[in-house]
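Here is one chain, start to finish.
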Amino acid sequence: MQPLPVPCPAHLIPDASGTAAFHQAYRQAMARGAVFVAIESDGPHWTVKADTLTAGSGHFVDDTVNDAIRAAIDRLVHHRQVGADAYRGPIYFMMHNVASEKRARELAAALHAALHGDPEPLNRAVAPAS
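Its structure:
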């Protein structure tokens, strides 16, 4: 598996469904010193996962971007696009109950961009606040 480009197109987000696939994707991100991001099949729904620990101590997400990520995840929960048990960072992120693989990939790619300092794709991917 090649390192994910930044920004990462949604179709390149790895499917880490199953223990072996998850461990492989996570280990590869760690070996490359890259932010881990993946999707997983969870029965009829999908889960988005991201972890910045794999990027090492040199990777930094500033408070403004972390605040934007948390606000975006809150909007997703409010609009019932992800489960209320979402992890909102600042290091580990997880969103359960995503309706489709396509939507999970879209959210994962947008989260990946945000974790590299560009929250705009995530803002566009999230329903507007009401």
